[in-house]
Amino acid sequence: MHPQHLGTSAYATVSDSVTKDIEETETFVFTAIVNKILVQEVGGWKVWNFITETKMKYVLVTGGVVSGLGKGVTASSIGLLLQACGLRVTSIKIDPYLNTDAGTMSPFEHGEVFVLDDGGEVDLDLGNYERFLDLTLTRDNNITTGKIYQFVIDKERKGDYLGKTVQVVPHITDAIQEWIERVAMVPVDGKEGPADVCVIELGGTIGDIESMPFIEALGQFSYRVGPGNFCLVHVSLVPVLNVVGEQKTKPTQHSVRVLRGQGLTPNILACRSTKPLEENVKAKLAQFCHVPAENIVTLYDVPNIWHIPLLLRDQKAHEAILKELNLQSIAREPNLKEWTSRTEISSTLHDSVRIAMVGKYTGLSDAYLSVLKALLHASVACHRKLVVDWVSAGDLEDVTAKETPQVHKAAWDLLKGADGVLVPGGFGDRGVQGKILAAKYARENKVPFLGICLGMQIAVIEFARSVLGMIDANSTEFDPETTSPCVIFMPEGSKTHMGGTMRLGSRRTYFKVTDCKSAKLYGDVAFVDERHRHRYEVNPDMISQFESAGLSFVGRDETGRRMEIIELPAHPYFVGVQFHPEFKSRPGKPSALFLGLIAACRRSDTSLPNKGHLKKPVANGTSNGHFPVKSHQNGHAFKSSNGSLNGVYSNGNGVHS
Question: In 10 A of CB 273, how many CB atoms?
């Protein structure tokens, strides 16, 4: 239970005596059902505040039949729809894997690692929540089996269970429920007090062995919080067999049967299909799944995922959710004017901007998901259709020219045909030489360049080799014996433990040069707070040599010895940053440095929007598709009706807004 002030728009029924007292005061505030009355003195005026006590409301999103149906997009869209109804929303993602967090997982295995302000390394779905809902989540908003078991075992070692036999039920299931309740109460939208609704996404597929403790816990949880406080949305597949051409309901029927057998009953079915559900199919699902037909919505293939909240709204999904949560009297009609405008405009941009993404994991765009979305946000702000040319860094190297000259030529053709070059972050020495060649090409040919994390370090190494003449200049990550260590291991790092030992989370960068491109893009501020994830840094003992040769280190940390931003003043746009600006980019508030890159690519006819804020932000984006793209096991793809995914043409790999 928590007090919640609901403002002046609701109504209260009070006794005659209280009404009389109210009439004698100068100011009063009505809220919903009155539980307590607080009297405050404000400047000599008596203020009566009627305060309600309401329970947190929970929406659980589960998935059935197969993985990759789009639970993350669905959960984010539900959250956005509830926000549009005037409610405050928070989000939790449950990942049933045993890893404590996503920090040590390969991008090929699980997509990118999303970094939060508090340094949490989490599932990429939390990035999806932050972008859709404009939240600032914490590491505790991502629950994993590893975290829960670690929490319970630590308590057992301290003797908190008083000699009891520690078991999955009740100790693990209780820990899950306590974690959810605790995290749901933490405000993540910059306002005081807890949110109104917590949207929980359960990763994996119903029936998975690793999910069973969570399903049991959530079944108990739904009973604990009681009717009117819990709504279950089950995302399932209704395939269309080409042979017969009809929508098949049996997979969803079986999925719901398994779900009900494990103690959870769906209130709403969100059915993924290639086309809208036919009425007879809805009736059949309603009959066999025990879900009212009006609570069955279709998430069919659309041009991009901006349509998903609109699909839910048009099918009255918000009304069904609000009814289940007893919030109809509080919520308003959803206001999605800006979102609708963004969706309508998304297909109208024709002038393109081509960005060569030179990386190591170009076979899986989810590995660079936040970078891709930040490019998308910035291109929209500059009114350009984004075209991403995926360039495998290794294909630019001389060894590829000898082994497969056609691949080498194709990679260089893509690089030279691009309007701008972006080298994202990464680890390991594979493809490093190709990234160095890409940075050299951009520097020498005045092509706009943005290097992120490793991309900045690559730019420093290339400058040392080509301009300072340090032939063996390198990072100690790639060559521990180099005589010109431009990039070195950070002293606080660990070489024996991988998880959570990097410089992580939001850190402050101070501008040491105020008259630089980066400072201007950020709005001439004295400092910026951006998120970090790295073990190596530019060698501070070599800074004077670099600056004497023309490489300017315009941004540094509070000590002045840790380099954060580099620029080449004589270059149209050559910027490298040690942090990851893509993690804080939003559709309507694009990252400043990505804005600078896109604007520099179209300098002749593009002007920067004021500090990156758009009146009508839109979503667009394409990719050349020259490299085969595969989907990782936790992908959340919404296939579009025109062959693209979410407005980004990337050969079947799911990307998020």
Answer: 20
Q: Which residues share a beta bridge with 54?
A: 2
Q: Provide the pLDDT for residue 498.
A: 53
Sign of the C-alpha dihedral, residues 140, 110, 210, 152? negative
DSSP 3-state assignment of 627?
Answer: coil
Listing DSSP states for 532-561 in one string gives EEESEEE-GGGHHHHHHTT-EEEEE-TTS-
Confidence bin at 57 (pLDDT 50/70/90): very high
Chain position carrying tokens 């839910």: 312
| C-alpha to C-alpha distance for 568 and 574, rounded to whole angstroms | 6
Pairing of strands 503-511, 552-556: antiparallel
Asked if 296 and 309 touch (Cβ cutoff 8 Å), the reply is no
Contact present, 449 and 442 (Cβ < 8 Å): yes
Our answer to whether residue 289 is catalytic in this structure is no
Residues 194-210: tens digit of each pLDDT: 999 999 999 999 989 99
Active-site annotation holder among 110, 580, 632, 656:
580
Predicted local distance difference test score (pLDDT) of residue 492: 62
Which residue in the list 85, 231, 271, 453 is annotated as catalytic?
453
Is residue 481 among the annotated active site residues?
no
| Catalytic pick among 582, 601, 626, 636 | 582
Q: What is the pTM of this model?
A: 0.83
Q: At what angle do helices 405-417 and 432-444 cross, to 10 degrees?
A: 40
Sign of the C-alpha dihedral computed for residues 114, 120, 125 and 127 taken in this order: negative
* pLDDT for 111 beyond 50: yes
Q: Is the dihedral of CA 496, 117, 103, 459 positive or negative?
A: negative
In 3D space, the residue among 648, 132, 133, 616 whose CA is nearest the CA of residue 376 turns out to be 648
Using pLDDT thresholds of 50, 70 and 90, give the confidence band for residue 349: confident
Helix, strand, coil shares of the chain, percent, nearest 5, are 35, 20, 40
User: Catalytic: 580?
Assistant: yes
Angle value at C-alpha 89, between 85 and 95, nearest 5 degrees: 135
CA distance 123 to 157: 29
Stronger pLDDT, 435 or 627, i.e. the higher one: 435
State which amino acid sits at residue 494.
S
For 42-71, what is the mean pLDDT?
A: 73
CA angle 150, 151, 155 (to 5 degrees): 110
Mean pLDDT for 564-589 is 94
Task: Quote the strand ranges of 238-302, DSSP E.
Answer: 268-273, 296-300
CA–CA distance, 397 with 411 (Å, rounded to integer)? 10
* Tokens representing residue 303 in the block: 């041009």
If pLDDT is split at 50, 70 and 90, which confidence band does 129 have? very high
Q: Please give the order of strands across the beta sheet that includes 197-202.
A: 142-144, 89-95, 197-202, 57-63, 230-237, 268-273, 296-300
Whether residue 356 contacts residue 434, with contact meaning beta carbons closer than 8 Å, is answered with no
114-128, 220-234, 623-637: which has the minimum mean pLDDT? 623-637
Rounded to whole angstroms, how far apart are CA atoms 45 and 277?
59
pLDDT value of residue 43:
53
